[in-house]
Design goal:
single chain, alpha/beta, Spore Coat Polysaccharide Biosynthesis Protein SpsA, Chain A, seven-stranded parallel sheet, about 40% helix
Amino acid sequence: MNASGRDWVDVIVCVHNSLSVVRPCLESVSAYTRHPYRLVIVNDACDWKTTGFLQDFLKDFKGSSLLLENAQRLGYLKSCNRFLERNEAAFTLLLNSDTIVTPGWLERMVRCAMSDPSIGLVTALSNRAANLSIPMPPGINCFRMAELVASVSPQRYPDAATAHGFCLLLTKKVIAELGGFDPAYGEGYGEETDFHMRATAAGYRSVVADDTYVYHVGRASFGSARREEIFKVNRALFMSRWECAYRKQLQKFEREDPLRPIREALPAQGAIDITGTLFRAVRRGREYWSLYGVRGLPGKAFRYFSRHGLERRQGLDFPATPKARVPRDPLRVTYFLPTMEVYGGVISVCQLVNELVKQGVDARLAVLERRDTDAWHLPMLTEPLVYAQDRSFRKHLPDTDVLVATFWSTAETVQRYVRAHPATVPVYFLQDYEPWFYQETDPLRKKVTETFAGIPNRIVKSKWLAAKLSEHDCATQIIRLGLNLDVFYRREVERPPGLRVLAMARPGTPRRGFPELLRVLGRLKAGCPAVEIILFGTFDEKSVHFAHTNVGFQSNPDAMAKLYSSADIYVDLSHFQGFGRPALEAMACGTVPLCSNLGGLGEYARDRENCLLVPPQDEGQAYAALKILVSDSELRKRLSAKGPESATPFCHRREACETRAYFERLVATRRGGGP
């Protein structure tokens, strides 16, 4: 390394597990950084899989690099300080491990820092950066967003009200004078803001690179309860030192609003939602009434709405006329979801869209409603388009090369759209055999079946689904589902002694076999009271008449992987599965599944090789198989060892590659380029 280089940068990434965000972060740094730099990775006592990845990544890394190993976890603050103490480069950039950088990012950060010798700190813009946040407009992904921001930015490099540590550039001079972060902030949170205040008090400028956009997942460091606890303690410490000066800087920043030109130049954020505004008015009115009574209510309400304005839907219910030109990527793909709920099918689509974006596809989500569910908090590299109604979707959906129906209720809308836009290729993504969602006497079963023939291009996740579609004379393309194996792997978790049986409770979905599950688990508990039974999901506690542990609804994949890893056996007595994502997740984590043998599980499930399979709705065989697993530790050990190996081929990156290739062939054929 040329440490005396005028603009050489040390890029420091502190890592503690969270491999699912670490991998794309480091891969983006490698792919999109052209400015001279050294990559410094701090392994802050990571688990076996994350450590292995970091070592393998640096073996193949082409540039200058350094790996620092912490024998025990030090936390972000101490890990950064450990390196800052030996700083030699002209600039040091602290990059959170849950970010994705974009082309030209480091060149712009350095150019900003070198524009004024008094600059000591530079922060990028992001989707999640408090007062430096610029939300992605609906239908725009993080890479297109970075291009947009760069194209409309006035490049004024305004003074920031505070620095943000997710992507923070420090000059050698400011580090030499101020040292590192204050250890008083413990595990972190607030240390970069404290450094910012110390720097500005010493005469340095802390600025925002208003032409640089870096995607930030956020909240990946701590659990929510722990995060709130640390935040309260550190905020109190910060305010005791800097409250007066900080509030002056913040008020000045809000008054001048230096990021307004960028926000105003971006595509519209959404239509005014009068209904949403009225609901919010009623809700706030009740709050003010309880606090102030009728006295003062009008003034409080006026001040609130003058500050927050009218509610806007997060979608485009009118033709988008962006003031900034939106660059077009080679392939534009839109997945159409009827709703956003935390179900396996929705998770699969969101995961696939994210991975297509990483692979250079202009992939996006369109949804017909927005209810406040946990699915909206899934990390998304593109902001979903939300439409109030079917007609609005068909009228205002941005141009797309491929439009994908994801459920039978979206198929007819896709067909209508394609009739009006013949250049668009329709695709039907079938994740389950949906006619069986309904009773034979239900007229919806026939309606679902009729949708199969309406879209000529069909993707299924298993040979079983392909065979079911062939019964309707419908050919399909098989692209097996992919798991994010950076999430689902055997975790090193503490657990009490004894055997643990895990099961999902979904009483609202009859095909999941909840009544049969309870009867089988109840018999097990009666015969083997020492076995701990853990249920996750949403269910009425009164319906369970045996001792159990209820861990509730699980929407966090990382927490789910730890839950699988803490159990010995996973039981799923669904009547059928289009693929069976949970059983494969359990296998990947070393948990032995007991499942029904009907459906797409045949893609990976091998009876007595990596799991036990029983006929659906046969409670007697299910109970007998469960008793065998409980009593035979050698069998469990053998099946458990095979699980991760069985899951290896089902990688989400492989699924995205195959999907992209399939879409490209379809588009080439539609454009006359041949298959």
